Amino acid sequence: MSTSSTSGSTSGPTRRGILGTAAAVAAGATLPALAASPARAAARPNILLIVTDDQPKQTEWATPKTVSWLAGQGVRFTNGHVTTPLCAPSRSSVFSGRFAHNHGVRNNGASHALDQHTTLQRYLKEAGYRTGLFGKYLNSWNVADNPPHFEDFALLRPSYVDGTFNVNGTVQTIDGYTTTVVRNRTLAFLEKARTDDRPWFAYVTPYASHGPRTPEAKYAGTDVPAWDGRPSVPEDDRSDKPPYVRNATQTLADGRRVRAEQLRTLRSVDDAVQAFHDKLAALGQLDNTLVIYIGDNGFNWADHGLTGKGVPYRPAHEVPFYLSWPGGGLGGGTTDNRIVANIDIAPTVLDAAGISPDTPHDGRSLLSGYSRDHLLIEWWKQGTGAGQKTWSSYVSKDRQYTEYYDLHTDASGTVTGTGQVGFREYYDLQADPYQLSNSLYQATPADERALGIPGLAAALAADRTA
User: Fold this and answer.
1) Would you place residue 314 in the very low, low, confident or very high pLDDT band (cuts 50, 70, 90)?
2) Where does the signal sequence lie (predicted)?
3) Boundary (domain end) residue, out of 373, 390, 407
4) What is the Cα gyration radius of the chain?
């Protein structure tokens, strides 16, 4: 295991007493350091962590109030990623700050492989935080099983209407739209701050915008902006792609349908986020609450003929990612261009709370000046059937190199196979941002050397075992 993320450079160590404005510095601005002290004994920040489901990056039209608050009065990360574009592995990375190959949740059936001792909620609860979970937890988690280290919870069995919840140990059906139920349960948790002076951690995770993408009644007929696709939709010539992409059949019409459905469900999420903002303002806690918002993975809108996630293409692993913490000097509406990921959330929160973890992290605190030069993204095939293979990818701002392997997992996440590389892709993301031309298709050894493929392959191999 590694105590750091994939290779990069460090422009300065984490300093809990001096945050500066790492986001602005990363964006190229030069601002004076702010003498905020996140670990002040009397003013540890509250933590509001919002994780949406299957929300791709290009969805800000549906969440204007969220963007106005968290990006307009916080930080927008323009290069936000997830390290495994699949729900349970990604959420486990959020909780643990670790890659899936280290935390062990390699597929949606392996949720119980997560070592609960390594989780963000364990650290916060043991440090005296009041902890709450509202919404989806981990795929394959039995709704009757209480989520560890949360003292107040309404755990949702994924659904949109009249959902089954485990409310503090009692499984029950709660009528209504589940995003609204999640919102109201969260607001009740926040309201308890009037009589409970402990700092709090709320993990809020509505089912939107996951399929079947059922909108709240008031948004069912909402018109969404017209969309003519992008060059990768549906990409008619896919001869340079692996077989599962060459055989994909999704069309622009399919992409438009999925996009519209996702946008409508996210309208209710936007309402909930606005309600959280207003409640924090009423409680006088808006300034010293660290708010982080991220999608657990992205989603293809018929890109390369695909709808869904789990693929090494940008719409699947790039996600909306915002952070706001005025009391920590991060409330000014800045843009941060660093490569950041879900593995950075746990280190960031613990840094802000002044907690030193006793288990290693692969991510780094976003409050530091750390800037990685690339990121490992990985995904495993479950079972032995035909179709897409296990893959891993080296992703930087200007290029992406991917290898597909003869490997698969069983339901518990155990990996078997030869590990032989069966297909490779390389994209120049500056010249080809939509990943239309795989430079390794029919490339000669000389071509590969000119592209730097031997070095990328070696770096990827190192990342996969770090």
Assistant:
1) very high
2) 1-35
3) 373
4) 21
Q: Reduced to 3 states, what is the DSSP secondary structure of residue 281? A: helix
Last residue of a domain, one of 338, 358, 373: 373
Positive or negative, the Cα torsion across 456, 378, 429, 254? positive
CATH number at residue 422: 3.30.1120
Q: Let me know whether 138 and 153 are in one domain.
A: yes
Cβ contacts of residue 411 below 8 Å, gap of 6+? 107, 109, 110, 382
Can you give the pLDDT at residue 198? 97
DSSP 14-28: --SS--TTHHHHHTT
Q: Which residue has the tokens 């392996």?
A: 110
pTM of the model: 0.92
Burial class (CB in 10 A: 0-12, 13-18, 19+), 341: buried
In this predicted model, what pLDDT tens digit does every residue of 369-404 receive, in sequence order? 999 999 999 999 999 988 899 999 999 999 999 999
Q: Give CA separation, 112 vs 105, 137, 145, in Å.
A: 8, 12, 11
Residue 455: which domain range? 379-465
In a shared domain, residues 273 and 413: no
Res. 161 pLDDT band, cuts 50 70 90: very high
Average pLDDT along the chain = 92
